[in-house]
Specification:
This protein has two helices and ten strands; from the N terminus they run αββββββββββα. The protein is an alpha+beta fold. The chain is elongated.
């Protein structure tokens, strides 16, 4: 009887912790915030800002992919973020997130394609360290037109959700161990009574 009370107490404790973490995750997800940056503050060596950034083959002649637009050089804390880019393009283009003057070592993200079939793309990235100058580079391959309407960066709760998932599976494993231990104990008691 004492073992059953302890078992139910552990289940209640685990359920409370999981619900608390779930509540924390939901509250943090709802409180995701935009990182302040203006598209006009971004930089380009090849084009100028006029109600967005626009380029086509007649403006920039290149046979190689170039770094067309770059910025915003933000100081950011370690954590999970989302980037959303609103754009129009005739040919597929790409963008790349870097930090600390081209070093991608602190960022878990790769080269992202700006598809000509889409008008908006959103993707997540994770900063493994605090950084001084986050940079997003929009690349242009020299083919077709490309217009960048907006680029926004927001915090997100991916790391918190990963932690919650790990804690959930840890508790699930713990429950399995407790159930297995209880089952073994019952088998031993039954075999002990049948031997007597």
């Amino acid at each position: 009887m004492k073992a059953n009370k302890r078992f139910y107490f552990l289940l209640l404790f685990q359920a409370s912790v999981c619900l608390g973490l779930l509540f924390f995750t939901i509250m943090r997800y709802k409180s995701s915030r935009a990182i302040e940056t203006s598209l006009a503050e971004w930089k380009s060596d090849d084009i100028t800002f006029e109600d967005g950034w626009y380029v086509d083959e007649s403006m920039v002649r290149t046979d190689e992919t170039i770094d067309l637009l770059y910025g915003p050089y933000l100081k950011m804390d370690k954590g999970s973020y989302s980037v959303e880019i609103a754009y129009d393009c005739d040919n597929d283009q790409s963008c790349l997130m870097t930090a600390q003057e081209g070093n991608a070592a602190f960022i878990k993200s790769g080269l992202t394609r700006l598809s000509s079939r889409l008008k908006k793309i959103s993707y997540r990235f994770t900063l493994t360290e605090n950084i001084d100058n986050l940079e997003l580079i929009v690349k242009y391959n020299g083919h077709g037109a490309l217009r960048i309407h907006d680029i926004s960066i927001r915090t997100n709760s991916v790391s918190t959700r990963r932690t919650l998932t790990a804690v959930f599976f840890l508790f699930l494993f713990w429950d399995g161990c407790v159930c297995f231990q209880t089952y073994i104990r019952k088998i031993r008691i039954c075999s002990w009574h049948s031997d007597s």
